[in-house]
User: What shape does this take?
Amino acid sequence: MRILFLSVYNPLDIGSGPSTGLYYLSQELVKLGCEVHILTIKTKTHGEIDHRVNIHYENHLQHVPLGRWLTISNICISKIKKLIKDYRIDVIHGRSPSSISYALSKNKKMPFIVSIHGTSFGEIASYIKIPFSFLKKRLLYDAAIVQPSWAFFTSLEYKAANKIISVSKALAEEALNYYRLPSEKLVVIHNGVHVLPITQAETENVILSVGRMVWRKGFTYLIEAMPNVLKENPNTKLILVGDGVYKVFLEEYTKKLKVEKSVLFYGNLPREKLFLLYQKARLYVQPSLYEPLGNTILEAMASEKPVIATKVGGIPEIITHGKDGFLIEPESYQQIAQTIKTLLSDSHFSKKLGKNARAKMRKYFSWESAAKKTLQIYEELLHN
Assistant: This one.
């Protein structure tokens, strides 16, 4: 079977859940005998995923607002058609919002699948409670113009798709409610994770959190928890991995709270270094306000780490409270602090949660399983 993915997320880029998902899913599909092609945006990151995965780049990146998305969504339609013809593609799989122009001019006989990783409505909802002092012009622009625009544009993709793959049940319900989609069109396939060998010893009292430095990731509340944590655990270090519009603000916020010596900002890391950092950490915290699933949670759990995460979006589909992690209320730095102190004070309990988490990842969240379920959808659509 010959598959063409349309993705504004370069699978070789670091720091994006959809990029990571495509990186691993494409590898597993070629193992199952598929011929995989990816049309994506050309970025500074180069290389290959697997010699059997064919990456085709769109070079005409526009340096205008929304240009990254419009490039592949609208300008590339001729290139998409050429790839379909040259490689005799059987299935088109768009990683929303990457296939809008194709959705408007698609071949009705060819199966068209769209993966949904979040909704504009969910993003906007996470902005509602932002304190006035935290507001930024770029965020206001995103909430008032960008997200409403993509709510409309992505609805065109979902309407044209034969099937929509959601990364979580919570996100599927969100899409059904907001976009008024027929339930039979949606299928849930959780992202997977690779359970790698443990090669690094744990470092005492290191807390890790990974994600884009944007408001909905809730890093502000994690930083607010640190003064309380440090009172009982003065040697604790919080490592924040990722980049984004709020990074400078968060660095300044640590100085305001006088915890700058205990909070370290690492920026984006290559996957190999990030996986080693997961292993070195004592525990992992995901304080998100909106989270369709949470790839970094899967990676931390696969690395045998106990996870503290907010009970929003798809996160409760990953964590069983008290067994392989802790679910807390969003926006509660008090709960974050108390739960961190509980895990730091009980090494035996912490390690037990981590072992349970790793076992769950092995059993229920493999990329091989996700690829097999995805391939089954392709085959069903081809034979109908």
